[in-house]
Amino acid sequence: FVDGKEIEEALGIAVIKHSEKKPGGLNEVMDHFPNVDDASQLCMVGDRLLTDIVFGNLHGMLTVHILPLCSGKDNKKDNKVANVVRVVENKIMYADWWGGRKIRSYTLGHKVWKGEDECPLVLADENEPLLGDLKRKD
Nearest to residue 60, comparing CAs of 35, 38, 34? Predict the structure, then answer.
């Protein structure tokens, strides 16, 4: 759990540690959020489709698939098998081939988020913040 502690300190957010491999471990997640009574009120953010995203989807969470937090030499401690699997997962899901398009066409509704028409998801970067100028003014 050393990497989790480093991420917590760097980002200022809690990393939920669990002893059970995903897609198990929902109890530890729910214990971390005592005021949440339904997993659909949570959002799973992860860089692995077959662990993080499947875990969130199986439990009714909104899911966000991201790139790994580290790359290059900073990622040298990453599990080599997990890294290869991640590349294969991404190629299967996101490549423009009939199988990838077919898989992506099976989008299920979410219990809380009503979809793009009602609440669009927008990507932003530090150069174009969504909520006005979020940069610190000294």
Answer: 38
Beta bridge partners of 64: 45
Please name which of 34, 35, 55 lies closest in space to residue 45, comparing C-alpha atoms.
Answer: 55
pLDDT tens for each residue of 3-19: 778 878 887 887 887 77
Q: What whole-number distance in Å separates Cα of residue 89 and Cα of residue 93? A: 6
Alpha carbons 105 and 103: distance in angstroms, whole number: 5
First to last CA, the chain: 37
Is-above-0.85 flag for pTM?
A: no
Token couple for 24: 């198990």
> Does residue 5 contact residue 14 with C-beta atoms inside 8 Å?
no
The enclosing H or E element of 83 equals helix 80-94
Token pair of 116 as six digits: 């793009």
* 40 in Cβ contact with 33 (< 8 Å): no
* pLDDT (tens digit per residue) in 105-117: 777 777 777 777 7
Q: Which residues contact 8 (CB under 8 A, 6 or more apart)?
A: 14, 15
